[in-house]
């Protein structure tokens, strides 16, 4: 499935707009305790564990969004927006949310 943050795709015409599709993934507090508790993983101000978990959450969110688009009969998603939010009591969780418009190209 073709996915893009742009609203048009050069060389492709949108035949039908099928609606907004979303995907979300939330990382619990235990992930952050493990990540921030492991100082040895932090090199040069970056945490490999944290980046790996955020990448995993983003992948899950994209997969959920794509599955929703497939159910609508889409073969593309345009105008994708990716958001990261801290949620829960005292910011104990991180949410990755992706949304876009499912289309038939």
Automatic annotation (TrEMBL):
Q: Which InterPro entries does this UniProt record tie to the protein?
A: UPF0145_dom_sf (IPR035439), UPF0145_YbjQ-like (IPR002765)
List the protein's name: UPF0145 protein ACFSKX_07200
Q: State the taxonomy lineage.
A: Bacteria, Pseudomonadati, Pseudomonadota, Gammaproteobacteria, Cellvibrionales
**Hey, which family's this protein in?**
Belongs to the UPF0145 family.
Q: Which Pfam families match?
A: YbjQ_1 (PF01906)
Species annotation: Microbulbifer halophilus
